[in-house]
Backbone:
């Protein structure tokens, strides 16, 4: 079968963020049995080596320039551009950030190839790419949106947790986000989400939508189970450090949880390991006990050297790769409801500790710091869960069935 995958984010290398990880690993699985064409755009930092490497995993790749790269040299010009996008957004029921990246050239290429009947299925990777699956294309092919995360409900959550970079702007855009999400939920053959929460939220837009839950996976060769527990009082958070949900989580932990925790454990360290740390994240490195690494040569080595992995996310929906990878690597996790979304970790067997308040984090982390047997039990139980339910092999097989129209 010939499949067209659409991703405005260049999905290689599969290490920049969860979007690249999910897109690339599903693409890699589908390539085994199908012919894959990829329509994509250059992301910032995409190199010729990246393009050549990804080319080995697809039969055809069409790369379009990133939209919105050229900006006016004047403040007035920038304001005019934003105003124009706002009114266009209102008129088309399309969020400004999606319009900003939208490529008419890529749309024309997709329309031409689809209407000529070249593909049996078209999948849009991430809800932001649903804009390319125009309703009339269903007459020519099966259309699928692999949501990754809901743009509307994610923004609602940011506002609720006071974690938005620009709350007045986001509040103003909520009606447009709502209309955009509802529109594609009523115009697509199949929708794929990562958690039951996502399924519930999107069914509010269309109760009859055909939605399949397919969780993320872990490459178990890249994240082997560690051979020994390092002990000590070393905490780690991993993730791209220019994403707002990660910035909010790290600031919350570093500024509110770590200081009282260090009163009990003066040598406690909080390692922030991830690409592209913003200025506000780098500034946290001046606080006692906080180490901001930036890009590291091997994330799994940093995980293996840590006592506990914390996932104190307060915003963002969907299953979290960072949580799955830590569990696969044998590092016990303390996470929030958002950080543990889509995972059965409570009860017996215990696979992680849950915390949402400062006091709950301190209590959970102290339990793990002081009890190596508990660390070992949680780590072992978590790895078993990952091996059983969260491999890319399993996710790819289920995704293939959706594209074949079997689910």
Residues:
């Amino acid at each position: 079968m010939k499949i067209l995958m659409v991703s405005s984010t260049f999905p290689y290398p599969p290490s920049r963020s969860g979007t690249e990880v999910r897109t690339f690993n599903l693409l890699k699985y589908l390539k085994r049995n199908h012919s894959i064409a990829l329509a994509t755009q250059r992301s910032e930092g995409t190199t010729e080596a990246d393009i050549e490497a990804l080319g080995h995993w697809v039969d055809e790749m069409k790369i379009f320039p990133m939209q919105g790269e050229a900006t006016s040299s004047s403040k007035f010009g920038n304001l005019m551009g934003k105003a124009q996008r706002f009114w266009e957004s209102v008129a088309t029921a399309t969020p400004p950030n999606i319009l900003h990246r939208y490529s008419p050239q890529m749309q024309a290429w997709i329309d031409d190839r689809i209407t000529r009947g070249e593909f049996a299925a078209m999948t849009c990777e991430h809800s932001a790419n649903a804009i390319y699956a125009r309703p009339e294309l269903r007459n020519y092919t099966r259309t699928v949106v692999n949501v990754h995360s809901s743009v509307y409900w994610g923004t609602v959550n940011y506002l609720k947790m006071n974690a938005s970079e620009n709350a007045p702007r986001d509040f103003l855009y909520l009606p447009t986000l709502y209309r955009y999400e509802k529109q594609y939920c009523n115009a697509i053959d199949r929708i794929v989400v990562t958690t039951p929460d996502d399924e519930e939220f999107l069914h509010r837009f269309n109760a009859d939508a055909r939605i399949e839950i397919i969780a993320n996976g872990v490459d178990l060769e890249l994240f082997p189970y560690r051979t020994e527990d390092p002990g000590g009082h070393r905490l780690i958070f991993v993730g791209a450090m220019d994403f707002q949900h990660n910035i909010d989580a790290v600031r919350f932990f570093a500024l509110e949880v770590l200081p009282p925790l260090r009163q009990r454990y003066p040598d406690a360290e909080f390692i922030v390991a991830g690409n592209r740390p913003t200025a506000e994240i780098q500034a946290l490195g001046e606080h006692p006990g906080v180490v901001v690494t930036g890009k590291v040569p091997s994330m799994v080595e940093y995980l293996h050297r840590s006592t506990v992995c914390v996932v104190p996310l307060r915003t963002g929906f969907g299953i979290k790769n960072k949580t799955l990878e830590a569990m696969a690597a044998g590092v016990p996790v303390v996470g929030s409801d958002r950080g543990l979304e889509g995972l059965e970790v409570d009860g017996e067997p215990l696979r992680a500790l849950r915390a949402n308040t400062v006091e709950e984090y301190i209590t959970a982390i102290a339990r793990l710091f002081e009890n190596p047997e508990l660390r070992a039990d949680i780590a072992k139980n978590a790895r078993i869960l990952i091996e059983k339910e969260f491999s890319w092999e399993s996710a790819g097989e289920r995704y293939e069935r959706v594209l074949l129209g079997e689910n």
About this structure: The mean pLDDT is 91. The first helix runs from residue 18 to 30. The longest strand covers residues 35-41. DSSP finds 15 helices and 13 strands in the chain.
